[in-house]
Specification:
Elements: E1 11-15, H1 20-31, E2 37-44, E3 47-55, E4 71-72, H2 77-90, H3 117-121, H4 142-151, H5 168-181, H6 185-197, E5 201-203, H7 230-236, H8 241-247, H9 261-265, E6 273-275, H10 277-288, E7 292-293, E8 296-297, H11 301-307, E9 312-315, E10 322-325, E11 345-348, E12 354-358, E13 363-369, H12 380-393
Antiparallel strand pairs: 1-3, 2-3, 2-13, 4-6, 5-6, 7-8, 9-10, 11-12, 12-13
Helix pairs in contact: 1-12, 2-5, 2-6, 2-11, 4-5, 7-8
Length: about 400
């Protein structure tokens, strides 16, 4: 992360005096040059107690970060996608133990006949990558991507190990949602979750909101000596699961892809949600309160418990570190904690964003930013903010 002089960054918003230390840490991140623009929000027992934002929405520091500034949160989007699946389970329209081919008949071929929905949710399906070469623009073509996944053979026997389905997660689960609901994942999320909760969060951003979006910087290479160095792995081992998962389609060849209108408009349910920290915290605040906030039910208590029931833990075949997954959500591991509670659940995003729920403490947490870091799982900045939060909780 490149140091930046941010001593003039204005911090706005509200912070309950009990959580003064969260504000102080947030301000320090700017003073230490670790932020360009960012937001942090916290819900406790359904009440918003922290909602702070500051800095700049562009690298030229010409646009201030405002209350309604949106930013791409990469894989933090996966938590919203998983919630859509769980909502359909609540409605009796999906079953985690059913074969995926029951909902998506074309999927049931080439070794995928016995893959269950829970395998997709827990990154155990063996489908983190597509072998058929695809052009960069294929990432924006839903039919091309889901068609390729329907033909793809698993890279390992489903259910026997796990590896982060960094990009395919969204198409796999999004297609199941589309087949059952008749709506795209982004439309289903808007109608069933974001709309009722009043979330300023989008999977497929309408053009009228593009002017509110903060430009996100490219993810920098990891510091020298960092292990594992995923960039190095992809360079020297192009046939590794890591390289295959991230490099096809080679969307990195599209200049500044994450800041293009095409990226913002597309529905990429694994990686291109755009929202505010407030929206992320309110979403997880509902999940921390048995699925209901302000009288609005997002999920039932049974789905919350299902979401945070461990399904996979150990060496990740794609990320080359230890990861731990419930049904659709990442769970804490050593060095990538979401507070002190082992059954907290949520999702980080590439570059640094993070959202999670801790039902034991009633916590819903959201952090977003536009200065990307290079941590593999959870960035040091949200870790510092989460540590301050729990220090305040005592």
């Amino acid at each position: 992360m490149s140091p930046m002089n941010q001593t003039d960054a204005k911090i706005s918003g509200k912070c309950d005096p009990k959580f003064f230390w969260v504000r102080e840490v947030f301000e320090n991140l700017f003073e230490e040059g670790k932020e360009l623009g960012a937001g942090v929000a916290v819900s406790i027992d359904g009440k918003l107690v922290v909602d702070l934002w500051g800095g700049y929405a562009d690298t030229e520091r010409a646009r201030c970060w405002e209350k309604d500034t949106l930013v791409n949160v990469y894989s933090t989007t996966k938590g919203m996608t998983a919630a859509c699946v769980h909502r359909l389970v609540d409605q009796g329209k999906l079953d985690p133990d059913r074969k995926v081919s029951r909902y998506w008949p074309e999927f049931g071929c080439n070794g995928k006949e016995d893959i269950r929905l829970r395998h997709l949710l827990s990154h155990q399906a063996g489908l983190p990558a597509i072998d058929a070469p695809l052009p960069p623009e294929a990432i924006f073509d839903w039919g091309t991507m889901t068609g390729a996944l329907a033909e793809q053979a698993p890279l390992w026997k489903p259910g026997t190990q796990h590896g982060y389905h960094a990009r395919t997660f969204g198409w796999l689960l999004g297609e199941v949602v589309r087949r059952i609901s008749g709506k795209s994942l982004g439309a289903y999320f808007k109608d069933e979750i974001a709309g009722p909760l009043g979330l300023d969060f989008y999977i497929g951003l309408p053009d009228e909101h593009h002017a509110r979006v903060a430009a996100i910087t490219a993810v920098p290479p990891p510091p020298p000596g960092t292990e594992p160095n995923l960039a190095r792995v992809m360079q020297i081992r192009p046939q590794s699961f890591t390289a295959r998962a991230f490099m096809n389609p080679p969307s990195y060849r599209i200049r500044d892809v994450a800041n293009t209108p095409q990226w913002r408009r597309a529905e990429l349910p694994s990686s291109n949600g755009h929202g505010t920290a407030n929206a992320v915290a309110r979403f997880y605040g509902a999940l921390a309160c048995k699925g209901t906030i302000d009288g609005i039910r997002v999920l039932g208590p049974e789905s919350i418990e299902c979401a945070r029931t461990e399904q996979a833990r150990g060496p990740d075949q794609v990320l080359i570190v230890e990861t731990r997954f419930g049904h659709g959500f990442m769970m804490p591991v050593a060095g990538a904690e979401m507070g002190p509670n082992d059954k907290a659940f949520g999702h980080p995003g590439m570059g640094g964003s993070l959202g999670f729920a801790d039902p034991e403490a009633g916590v819903g947490f959201g952090y977003v930013m536009n200065l990307a870091g290079s941590f593999i799982l959870i960035d040091e900045r949200p870790i510092a903010l989460v540590t301050a939060l729990y220090d305040c909780l005592g």
